[in-house]
Structure formats: structure tokens, C-alpha cells
User: What shape does this take?
Amino acid sequence: MLAPLAGLLLPQEEEQVFAVWRRAGTLRAAIDDARKEGYLPPVDPRRGQEVHERALYTEMERIGVMLRRKDGRIDMPDLFRVAAKLLKKGGTAPL
Assistant: This one.
């Protein structure tokens, strides 16, 4: 779910993050992989939750991988951001 975001500069407007996920087919791939491998998907349509990028972001925020700044932009703690190879102006650079 984070790999398609590699190289993206954070914090970022939500639509930019969601567009990357849409282009990469991230949500569908995560759901399909979960079904194939037998683990819980990040967003389960059987729970009555809409299957879209906002729902994926909500789950990522719930577990602390992503967060929203006061100005509404999406950000990520450095621990996850560096591991996922996302960029941040003035932040620690990914290896």
C-alpha cells in the first residue's frame, strides 16, 4: 500500500495520494491479495464500508501509518515514510 507512493513528497494533498493509489490499483491489489493469502483486507466491502481510497487512508490513519495535518494535507511519521521511500522537504532522506 505504501510502495506506489515511493518518491512522493509529503505532506501532500489527499487527492494526490489517492490518485497515486488509483493509478497503481493499490486498493484492488490489496483486497485481492488478502483473499488469495487468507488475511483480512485493509478495507472489507462486506463490512458495509465503501471500497475507495479514502477508506484505505482512514484505515492507515487508524493504525498510525498516516496522519492528517491541521491544514488537511496527508503526512506520515518518519519511521514509515523513510521505509516507504517517500520524500519530505527538510526530512530524513530514504536510502
